[in-house]
Amino acid sequence: MDYEALRFIWWLLIGVLLIGFVVTDGFDMGVAALLKVLGKNNDERRVMINAIAPHWDGNQVWLITAGGALFAAWPTVYAASFSGFYIALMLTLFALFLRPIGFEYRAKIDSETWRSRWDWALTAGSAIPALIFGVAFGNLLQGVPFYFDDILRLHYTGSFWALLNPFALLAGILSLLMILNHGATYLQLKTEAELKARSENLSAVLALVCSAIFVLAGVWLFLAVDGYSVTSLIDTNGANRTTDKTVLISAGAWFSNYARWPLLWLAPVLGVAGFVACAMASKTQRHITAFISSSLAIAMVVLTAGVSMFPFVMPSSSTPAHSLTMWDATASESTLMIMFVVACIFVPLILAYTAWSYFVMRGRLNEQHIRDNSHSLY
Amino acid sequence: MDIVDLSRLQFAFTAMIHFLFVPLTLGMAFLLAIMESVYVMTGKTIYRDMTKFWGKLFGINFALGVTTGIAMEFQFGTNWSYYSHYVGDIFGAPLAIEALMAFFLESTLIGLFFFGWDRLSKEKHLAVTWLMALASNLSALWILVANGWMQHPVGSVFNIDTMRMELTSFSEVIFNPVAQVKFVHTVSAGYVTGAVFVLAISSWYLLKGRDLPFARRSFAIASAFGLASALSVIVLGDESGYELGDVQKVKLAAVEAEWHTHPAPAAFTVFGLPNEQTQTTDYALKIPAVLGLIATRSVTEEVAGLSELKEKHLERIIRGQEAYVLMTQYRAGDKSPATINRFNEVSADLGYGMLLTAYTDDVANATAEHIAQAVEDSIPKVWPLFWSFRIMVACGVSMLVLFAAAFWHSAKRTVDKPRWLLKFALFSLPLPWIACEAGWFVAEYGRQPWAIGEILPTHLAVSQLSVSDIWFSLGAIVVLYTIFVIIEMWLMTKYARLGPSALHTGKYDLESPANVKEA
Fold first, then answer.
1. pLDDT at A110 exceeding the cut of 70
2. What is the Cα–Cα distance from A351 to A343, expressed in whole angstroms?
3. pLDDT of B254 over the 60 cut
4. How far apart are CA A29 and CA A180, in angstroms?
5. Cα B239 vs. chain centroid, distance in angstroms?
6. Contacts of B501 (CB under 8 A, 6+ apart)
7. With an 8 Å Cβ cutoff, is B473 touching chain A?
8. Is A247 helix (H, G, I), strand (E, B) or coil?
9. How far is the C-alpha of A99 from the C-alpha of A113, rounded, in Å?
10. What is the pTM of this model?
11. How would residue A134 be classed by pLDDT, with cut points 50, 70 and 90?
12. pLDDT average, residue stretch B62-90
């Protein structure tokens, strides 16, 4: 396998890890963010929390792994995005802090105030990262201002407030709503009676809203967001020459990949179809279909963003030639190869034992079960 | 304070708080696996209750381990972006492998450990617990492979075109001797932490005369596990000393306040007051030959002193200055064979040349003063290392004595342990944390001025952030962590006081008021 193929595989693998994160951690973030919306009393909220209790920790490792894989496979992208989006990343981090302790400590003290505070902590801890990740993607699609100096130190020249522009906020809202919807489809699978009915009703509406925003964002991207294209030849098999290319900013450039390979239209089309199918399935109480459609839809949203930008992963709006692409911001060939082998061994294993853990914990939860096991459950 | 100081402070704070929770997780995971094994083998439910109760405390601790752990992974990118770019090709791999191989398994199984009791057979649940314990240790392995590489970077080479270090041998990175000794020493320290934790709380129940059968059994398991761990942590720590003598001479010399090279075999300074001004140790109490034996395993080899090491650093800084200048020329477009050949001759000292960038932007014309300053700063401050190392060793020895006594009384099957022993155990509760933090400090502060030993100076490794950005994050982290730690310790105390009654099985002392009065 040559360097070029490994680079392409790693673009796919980073995508797989990101999709793994939004599909798995997405629903537990959605459930936690809906605690105060769907749960009308403590028992209902405990049903919701215990529906994800055995799994949220494992799910969150998709995020940790995506971060680690970014570090190993695209070190410069990891360095540039994490330091460039400093304040946004710190806010994400502070929000994420609240989840592990929220889940673990909420039921440890029998007090209404105590529980209510942790409910808000869990809501914020789950909603804020979903929002910020969407805003980050919205900014990546527009390009962010940074350049490298002569020893390749990164200098980010934008501000935190500039990240909160209208297009990015729309992307953030889409990200948050699709996570909420995903959480609601998971609750359809794991709860009973009223809680289940509320989740169905929410998804039936929310999924349609998501599809509308997704289409709107696509139209906006086409009409008002300039894309990037590499106009020099990149040596896809050679060492990274991150700052030695020429890049053109032009309207509609983010749609050039679709013109070249029309099959790629499947990604956004399946995204919209997934949301619509999710809404219909929720309405007709086909819960498994609703959950799978929602998973498909959010996977396709991530894929659409990736495909539109390909080969860019972090375009520079101020110094376009320094934009990071998946060809010239990667790790060395040997590191990519080693990490590829490691991923080939462990990703299937992870999927296997994760599936087993869901199988062990299968079935719906109700309030009676919570009351019977009050001291051992969350 | 500038961005370098602030970034260092933030990293040190987050790492040291994270490291309050990690050792206990490492140790408790195995203790839980041992307790549950006894349950499965004997069928006695008291051992299941032990697993569940100590598991509750484990969970309270684990949650903050996860919370503070996320910050660690994010921070390399957020605050150390040049570091991430410069060494990510090597350093990122063990972190990613840690997540794929270990953390995923640990985090998935911890859900089944807590919530799978009624859904798994006894044997399957036991397997889950053991795998969770193994996975947490496997996590430690990969993290310490990464950390070991920072201390002693092997299996990699500088690439001038991509302006970073690149991997040449992954097996050298994994089998890095520094990483290996660090791993065994650190996980053993974790086992000691878990054992002291269980021993101290059990002793408190025994002192109070509460839940005696539960407490005695916990005491026995902790004392045996703790004795074995305390022995290994000391033996393996000694092995670390040998490794330092081999590859991290500066750290060893600073830890031992070895100002000058003395004729072999070197003496070990037990106590003294290191004096930076006079470059001597006042009131030194020395044992002849012991340092030579620890560091070189011989009586004929010398242990290098700081002043001799500085002389070597001076030579390397001057060669490094040339390497840095050639590197700049090459990157500006001068790709003549003469430049490339000369660069390759001196490139091993490029990191030493980079040290000069702390004092001048114009490395080519660095003055003699700049160079002298760089040489002076090429070794860490002596007294913090000297003292924290001795604090760690004192705690370690004290815990060894504790476990020896505790194990002796368990093995004798004395039903009523002497009260001095129980009090000794209870008051030893903070010791493993003091030792772990002190040990971590020795390892990381002793690495200065380097982020990556002799490759990348700490001051260059930071992200180009604004001072106010880092003040904001540091301030918020300090406030949040303080709140979290207070809540954690409060819950931990509350549940430790409740004891096994927290399980609500109806069998334990606090659940029936009559029993409490009798006791």
1. yes
2. 12
3. yes
4. 8
5. 15
6. B211, B508, B509, B510, B511
7. yes
8. strand
9. 18
10. 0.94
11. very high
12. 95
A350 contacts B104? CB cut-off 8 A: yes
Cβ–Cβ < 8 Å for A249, A320: yes
The residue type found at A326 is: M
Please report where in the chains the tokens 């994050």 appear, as a residue.
B473
User: Would the pLDDT of B518 be above 70?
Assistant: no
Would the CA dihedral through A74, A75, A77, A78 be positive or negative? positive
Q: What share of chain A is helix, strand, coil (3-state, %, to 5)?
A: 75, 5, 20
DSSP H/E element including A314: strand A312-314
Q: Considering only the beta carbons, identify the residue of B117, B161, B473 that sits closest to A239.
A: B161
Q: What is the DSSP letter of B418?
A: -
Residue B505: band (very low, low, confident or very high) from pLDDT cuts 50, 70, 90: confident
Please report residues of A whose CB lies closer than 8 A to that of B156: none
This model of the complex carries an ipTM of: 0.94
Kindly tell me if the per-residue pLDDT of B517 is higher than 60. no
Query: Which pLDDT value is given to residue B516?
Result: 45
User: Residue range B407-423: average pLDDT?
Assistant: 89
SS3 of B515, please?
helix
Three-state secondary structure of B271-307 = EEEEECCCCEEEEEEEECCHHHHHHHCCCCCCCCCHH
B517 class by beta-carbon count within 10 Å (0-12 exposed, 13-18 middle, 19+ buried): exposed
Report CA B453 to chain centroid distance, whole Å.
17
Q: C-alpha angle with apex A153: A148 to A159, nearest 5 degrees?
A: 70
Both structure tokens of B162: 């991509």
Q: Which helix (H) or strand (E) holds A312?
A: strand A312-314
Query: Which residues, in sequence order, are CB contacts of A368 under 8 Å at separation 6+?
Result: none
C-alpha count within 13 angstroms, C-beta hemisphere, residue A347 = 17
| Cβ-defined contact of B71 to A93 (cutoff 8 Å) | yes
Q: Two tokens at B293? A: 């034996």
Report the distance separating Cα B470 and Cα B472, nearest Å: 5
Question: Is the Cβ pair A76, B464 closer than 8 Å?
Answer: no
For residues A355 and B282, the model is more confident at A355
- Band of the pLDDT at B128, cuts 50, 70, 90? very high
Give the closest of A70, A156, A361 to B119, CB-based.
A361
User: What per-residue confidence (pLDDT) applies to B272?
Assistant: 85
Q: Which residues of B touch A136 (CB under 8 A)?
A: none
**Six-digit token string for A372:** 């019977």
3-state secondary structure of A236: coil
Q: Looking at chain A, which residue has its C-alpha nearest residue B95?
A: A68
Q: How many residues does chain B have?
A: 519
